Fold:
Amino acid sequence: MFLEKYTNWQFNTLSPSDLEEFEAERLSFQTRAIVFALKIGIIMMPLLTISDIVALKDILTPNGWMSYLGGLMSFEFMFLLSHSQISKLISQSQRISSLKAWITLAVLTLTVMQYVTAFMAKHYGAELSMIALAISYFNLSFMLNAKERLYYNIICLAFFFLGYLTIFPKEHILLDTMLVAVGLSVTLYFAGDIIYKLQLEKFAQNRLLLNQTKEQNVQLKRAIRNQKDILEVLCNEMGVSTEALNFDNPDALGYQTKALLLRFAEYKQQILESKERYQDLFMNMNDGVAILSEKGAIKEANDTFLDILGINRDEMTTFDLGRLVHPEDREHSNHHLKKLLTDGFYKNYVGRVIRGDGEVRYLEVSSTAIVENGEFKGSRDIIRDITHRKLAEQALEEARNAEKQFLSTMSHEIRTPLNAIIGITHLLYDTHPNTQQVEYFDILKNSSQFLLNLITDLLDFAKMDAGKITAHPKDFDLKGLLKTIQQTFQMKVTPKGLDVDFMADMRMDQFYHGDETLIYQVLFNLLGNADKFTEKGKIGLKVKILERSEEDTLFEFQVFDTGMGIPADKIDLIFNKFTQIHDKNKIKTPGTGLGLSICKQIVEFLGGTIWVESIEGKGTKFFFTLRLPKAVASNGLAIEEPLALTETKKASEPSSVLEGFKILLVEDNELNRKYATTLLKKWKIDYDMAFDGAEACQKALDKKYDLILMDIQMPIMDGYEATIKITNTENPNKNTPIVALTASALVTQKDKALECGMSDYLSKPFTPVQLKSVLSKFAIM
Structure:
């Protein structure tokens, strides 16, 4: 059935590699057949020789005997020589070449033919000897192709006629016998051609299934020789059980073969469609995809891959991808190649390539190794062009740096004169002003404080927006912190006629562990916001414990007021940046619209939640939760006091602590020098002045000081450089404490001050109390 289905198979469409494989199989069969014939010949030769001599003793003429014996010796020699050569090839596991094959076959055939023909002629006549010739020819000719068969035919006939004419007497030579021999040879030549083509056609049938399965990347382990083999192969490749198949019934076997071939065709079509879908997806992906060899050569790639790298498809297979890698990224790239070999993959490696046109592109690369039988055979790579994203990130980073630099410059340029304004205002209060002057001083102080708050809000917002917020948790006095805030706002709102209501849960301990500064900032901002929008009634704070355990406590803080409230349609906007929901003309002290946004970011950074409830015209309540661990210290003696209380306590210390204290003041701004020196004189402190860092270094060589107050931004030499020089050279003040006077509120500059060798820092603008607190700290050390 199968042979009938493929009777019209055009085997000339076989590829050269298929034909080479067919020739290899044929020559292998020839080798086995010849070896078998040689073994039979070794056994039969003595018997045939004796038989021939007996059979021909009465027929051959004296000349015939000479020819016969000469031919016999020649054939024997060629026979033994062929046997020796073939045995040597077999021992070396080699096949006999086509030329050696048909020569050897001819020798064997003629050797056997001499004996058989002579024997048949003696006993049965010359005509039957032709039949022996045909049988000998037919048994071997089917193993030869057309060219080999032609040579074989000519040699056989030539030797036959030569032997026939020389061995037998003339009375035994018949013309019709010779014609019969020629006719049989021609007939058998074409019969051999038919057999050869049938063999090739059978091979083509097998190759059909082999090619079909190769499309599925499957290699068959054996040749297909019959329908049973076809069924077994099909079942194996399609995952069908062979138990239900009937191999004994030829008709059933045929139907089963047809059915499975039909299913196999459908299966093949599905494979083909799947391959087409994969190819379409592969070629149209937005990402570049390629398959690389073990040496990094491109074996296959989609258009996106080639477009990203600027490679022409014609040069794809010979293109060296390594030369595209940016020189600065080669080490990083080699690291990921090693990772591919050891781990079998890497993901999202970002590197740069330089295209042939000189354009630099940023790529995100992922790669998976192709491993066969434990050996690395290449990789599947996916690349994504992220140049626009990377350039946008760089532009954003540059913008952030520019913003940071702008804020730092603005902070310095505003805080420096503001320090003098606030400082001089504080000094004016000590000049015994009259009531009208005090009112003016209050306006000046409040306006300066508003400007300072504005700068602080902007800096806080910039810091949080850039993700630079950091927490510094420590044990602190929560009750003391709440008391300080209460006292601050009591003094602030009393002139307005407002009441301040503070209530704390009785179960609250005094000491907890957390960032006191950030908690203070949230409470201060929320209460300041309540004060701003409340003209009558009260503002207040309630602290409630929601959960309590041996390790920590969950608090709910509520800041409330009886002010104007928030419109219901705007309550969702309350925490947005730069958002002010009330008319600025109705507010006496408008702000930046950042305070509540900053509170939200701080609370969420600390792991809490913040929300608001409000009724327009009746007031607002802000809630936030915080979970605070208990203090590490076992008693209050190890806990630092709140900052405001500490400053108040130190400010109230007698001035005698500072009397005789020797200070070097390094400040380039004349107003700030005037402010600071006025305070130093008031506290009876001995001081010298320097106008820049270079002068400070010179004075540090001449005199020993107890403390150096160092401005940061100065001409000629800044405070950082001066500090490094003083602390790293031999001079009387190598170990003298240096306190930075910085007009920048950026944490990075404060950290830099400490890193370069400064002992502490004091931000401008500073109050007399703050300056005295710092001086007292080092005076009593």
Q: What stands out?
A: Confidence is low (pLDDT under 50) at residues 1-13, 89-99, 212-227, 634-654. Residues 164 and 170 are 10 Å apart (CA to CA).
